[in-house]
Amino acid sequence: MPASPRVSPRLAQEIGDRSSRTPSYTQLQASPSEAATQEQDQPIDWIITSLLFLFPALGGLLFGYDIGATSGAIVSLKSAATSGTTWYALSSLQSGLAVSAGLLGALAGSGGAFAFGEKLGRRRELLLASVCYGVATLLTCTAGGYAQLIVGRVIYGLGIGFAMHAAPAYIAETTPARVRGLLISLKEGMIVVGILLGYLASSQFIDSVGGWRYMYGLSLLPAVMLGAGMLWLPESPRWLLLSGASEEVATADCCRTRGQYGRDEGAVRGEVAEMAATMQASRRSTDEAGFAALFSGRNLRPLTIGMSLMLFQQITGQPSVLYYATEIFEKAGFASQADASKVSVGLGFFKLVMTGLAVLTVDSWGRRPLLLLGVSLLTVALVALSAVNSFLPASSPTATWTSVVALLLYVGAYQASFGPISWLMVGEVFPLAVRGPAAALASLTNFGSNFLVSLVLPTVQDNLGLGLTYAIFAGIGLVSLVTIYNIVPETRGKTLEEIEALWDKDE
Questions:
Q1: Which segments constitute the Major facilitator superfamily (MFS) profile domain (predicted)?
Q2: Closest CA to 152 of 205, 82, 223
Q3: Of the candidates 117, 305, 320, 378, which lies 20 to 30 Å from 236 by C-alpha distance?
Q4: Dihedral angle at the C-alpha atoms of 166, 167, 173, 179, nearest 10 degrees?
């Protein structure tokens, strides 16, 4: 068991009687604690902070790279001229499984993270992700048959599941509060960078014999970098306390996360003491309720926030809108079918720019304003797409250009809101005592809803038509907007312990 925390009288009084402490939402937004004020004043060692972000974020880059590379790899693999195999004549079911096997693996990885992620810890889970990525890449790019390809795709998906569960928590728990939003949102930017790199690799090797092997094989280098980086980086001090390590051990790793400014061990010990006190108070109520604690009391609202954001991120139309993106651009005269990969690259750059806007403003504007504004705009875009496809002739220039503008508005609004901020909130809102399993449930919700939407979307579109399909997505957008307005708080600039205190009034 961890040593008894050394806590200031102020903090002891604050934590000692949680039942009488019910701060209002307004008070918590307006009045940062002494701990937060001190942390805001601390200088940041940008070298170590950048590394604490960069190596875990490679897990997201590899996720995005797989999305972009697979778009070209499946075309290369199925072509008699470029496959370089005797088993290129894949059926629709086989090619669909080759694409979706990674998603099935990600679901399994999220389930594994739920089952034993807390025992592994953030650092070792990211190491496991790097191993999965590396082994899967070798299996896939050397595949001598369809079965080996699918096995490699599933193992790669396992890496995605572990990485997307552990990376937000690791970054949130090891980086300073005032740049936490910037860095976790930037992780989403790394996913988009990965998508772009995958598209570029596809464009480069699409005409080469066996080009799909090169597309997949290029992911080996970042997989090795992820593993090497996590071998060198420290474990999350907060997870160490949760796992039962002493404050001395947690303090040593916390000093490493502060870089040159961690030499003042006394100040770091004070931070660790506050972490330990908050964690122990949270853990007592969680241990008493067991697994049911995830769905009750102070944990229910953050779990609802995390899972609902992950759900709405996937069911507000992104697959449908992006599926028809190339067709919309072709009708506008921007590209022929042969130039579809270039259109994808251009759209990817636009996604990256809009993600960068969210990254640069999330710690100044705040999470709630970006979510509310972005979801409002993407809902307007969905209404416009619904109207165009319901009431205007498909060949009409007005319909074509309205669709182009609505598409760009949707993509931009999504990348400035749901895209980065959903994962950011998952990294922030969960109390430490349940952060691992709660984040795993959120990841399961994300990948599960993604899989279901991808599965049923073609049938829905065939039976209802694009106009009504977009109208349904617009309705879901309105529901998500109301949900965000009512349950999502502002967490900008708060320590993780302060965010945890937001949920005390729900006990």
A1: 52-492
A2: 223
A3: 305
A4: -160
Residues of the chain with pLDDT under 50: 1-38, 337-338
Per-residue tokens: 95? 């090619």
Q: Enter the pTM of the model.
A: 0.77
Say if residue 350 is in the same domain as residue 201.
no
* pLDDT of amino acid 264: 67
- State how far the Cα of 487 lies from the Cα of 476, in Å rounded to an integer: 16
Q: Is 248 a domain residue?
A: no
Write the CB contacts of 336 (distance below 8 Å, at least 6 apart in sequence): 330
Cα-Cα-Cα-Cα torsion 350, 56, 318, 98, nearest 10 degrees, comes to 110
Secondary structure element (H or E) that encloses residue 440, with its range: helix 435-487
Q: Residue 125: CB partners within 8 Å, gap ≥ 6?
A: 113, 117, 162, 165, 166
Give CA–CA dist 194/38, Å, rounded: 36
Q: Are 362 and 182 in contact (CB under 8 A)?
A: yes
Identify the domain boundary among 182, 203, 233: 233
CATH number of 438's domain:
1.20.1250.20
29: left (phi over 0), alpha (psi -120 to 50) or beta: alpha
Task: Please answer whether residues 359 and 444 qualify as being in contact, where contact means their C-beta atoms are separated by less than 8 angstroms.
Answer: no
Residue 140 in any domain: the answer is yes
Do 42 and 184 lie in one domain? The reply is yes
Residue 93: give the domain boundaries.
35-233
**Distance separating alpha carbons of residues 455 and 93, to the nearest angstrom:** 12
CA pair distance 110, 490, nearest whole angstrom: 27
> For residue 82, which of 200, 212, 235 has the smallest C-alpha distance?
212
- Position 100 scores a pLDDT of 82
DSSP per residue over 279-317, as a string?
HHHHHHHHHHHGGGGGGSGGGHHHHHHHHHHHHHHHHSS
Q: Which residue has the tokens 């579109």?
A: 461
Give the C-alpha separation, 120 to 130, whole Å: 14
Whether 186 and 57 have beta carbons less than 8 Å apart is answered as: yes
Residues 503 and 395 in one domain: yes
* Count of the separate structural domains present in the chain: 2
Give the C-alpha separation, 357 to 159, whole Å. 28
Both tokens of residue 251? Answer: 């303090």
For residue 2, what pLDDT is reported? 39
Is the Cβ–Cβ distance between 76 and 206 less than 8 Å?
yes
Q: Which three-class secondary structure state does DSSP give residue 248?
A: helix
Q: Which two tokens stand for residue 31?
A: 């009045």
Structure tokens at 273: 């003491």
Where are the alpha helices (H) located in 392-434, listed in sequence order?
Answer: 397-415, 418-428
Give pLDDT, residue 160: 94
Which run of H or E residues covers position 218?
none
Which runs of consecutive H residues, i.e. helices, occur in 31-145?
Answer: 34-41, 46-78, 92-120, 122-141
Q: Is residue 419 part of a domain?
A: yes
State how far the Cα of 100 lies from the Cα of 87, in Å rounded to an integer: 19
